[in-house]
Amino acid sequence: MRNKKVTGIERLKVRYGRMFVLPWTIGLLLFFLVPLFSSIAYAFCNVSLVNDKMLTFAGLEHFKYLLNEDPNFMNNIKDAVASFTYSLPIIVALSLIFAIILNQKFKGRIFARAVFFLPVIIATGVVMQFVTGAALEEGAALSTSMGETESYSGIRFDELLVNLGLPQSITELLSDYIARVFNLVWSCGIQILLFVAGLQSIPDQLYEVSKIEGATTWEEFWFVTFPMLGNVTFLVLVYTIVDLFTAFDNPIMKQAYDLITVNSIYDRSAAVLWAYFVVVGVVGALILLAYNRILMKKWN
Questions:
Q1: Residue pLDDT, tens place only, 6-25
Q2: What is the C-alpha separation between 53 and 207, in angstroms, rounded?
Q3: What are the two backbone dihedrals, phi and then psi, of residue 55, each rounded to the nearest 5 degrees?
């Protein structure tokens, strides 16, 4: 009787589980898999909007055009990868630093965590474009008006870098970094949350043993905290890679979006995105493979 009762409860749990998963399954089929296979078909076909998106097979024609004739595609790929290269370590490092600070015991800790997580709540595409667009317009207007007068007492980082006598390429690079600080800090919400959860899962006994052994705070971080956050850091890397490569200001995403919305070119835009997907997959796989081989293997 006991086994039958357990079996009945398990069947009930399975039934409820399927009911809860059913809306997600329907959404996956209708809003993900169907557009996914449609975009694959568009990338290898010519799409005509005359007869309700009639498809004619084109093979690799669109990909050849992107690689050999498109004047913007390769430059956009380089810009996207370059932006990703310096953004990834900065976001991961800032997220870990903020998480360690927010994990300490101090007054107003809950409020501080809410402030750092606030961008995740409001950082949708439209809101983020409005915030950054308004900020850029206001900054441009402010710099223009202040340029006409001499009453501006703020710091002009571009002029400061020029006065240092640095090469123009380095000055432009540093100016671009400073301009992107807002976006980088704004992109740390989910990563901070993941790191805080990972820090709270580290046993206190490990820190007690390290203190008994006479380890410094710096040594505790490198030999206790960071190794114990290995799996969380891997998750943060995966999330950040996807988030950066699909950001609203990504030049490749802008190119594909303009092809669809402005020119109604579905086939070439699909080819742009799938070619970009291959590049993202290769770069992400190399980073995660290096992380597993170098750090995770060493810690395990």
A1: 567 888 888 888 899 999 89
A2: 63
A3: -110, 135
